[in-house]
Amino acid sequence: MLDLEEGCTIEKIEAVAEEYHYQSMQAFECGDERLNTLYRQCLETTKTCTIDGFADCLTRERVLWMQDLFIDSLNTAYSYPDFALTRRMLLMFAQGQQENGRIITYTPSDLTWCSNPPGNFLWIQLITEYYKHTGDAQTVRQLVPVVERLLGYFRSCENEEGLICRWDGDEQFWDWGFYEQEGILLMTNAYYSHILTLLSEMPLFDGIAGQAAADKAAALKTLCFERFYDREKGLFIDAILPDGTRSPLVTQEAN
Fold it and tell me: Are 166 and 114 in contact (CB under 8 A)?
């Protein structure tokens, strides 16, 4: 039994850091030291949240979420740069593709319901960002069939106008805020248009996207304005609900 009144001597304190071996470029510096400090903090936070991929945080879940992967990958692209983890995780998410084509939102996982629109859209967008920074056509070609199946899932969720009107499993989760998650959502369809535009601009996806994707993206953009813009308020509503009525919600996320 330790007698605290007699005191004790701490001989050693150790901490084990488990993180990827980035070498910082320190590529940003300006005359405002507050921004310089913030930049260094961002680099260190990203590095500290790496294990065998990009984890969402240090303590709580340490889960490899797609949303965190996207932000952290762009951070490292402009700061270190090193794309090995980004490539590894793009392939890991592809390996978890479900039979219906959807990508599970975090990896590795058997939670097939956990597959929301932003996770799927961001995975495709990150492929285009990865190629822009690396020119790694070989890896992108590996992912083309996975993207093709995912686009097939998007089409299966469309209504007769071509708007995504449903999403299996995790509803249409976008944020922890108060907004609509069922029906025809502006956020889902606006981002769908954006993703199709990105794919149409990459020759490597001509076989599954190309001009047809560009035309569909433009049509979706027009539909989003027609269906969701409230001229009296001068703002966009969140959604058209499953019963066909217009949502009363006008949220910051949608606008």
Answer: no
* pTM score over 0.85: yes
Structure tokens at 145: 């069939």
Quote the DSSP letter at residue 166: -
Which residues are CB-neighbours of 179 under 8 A, at least 6 positions away?
187, 238, 249, 251, 253, 254
Instruction: Tell me if 126 sits within 8 A of 190, measured CB to CB.
Output: no
Letter for the amino acid at 125? Q
Which backbone phi and psi does 239 adopt, to 5 degrees? -165, 165
- Between CA 64 and CA 72, with CA 70 as vertex, the angle to 5 degrees is 80
What is the widest separation between alpha-carbon atoms in the chain?
80
SS3 assignment, position 44: helix
pLDDT at 132 over 70: yes
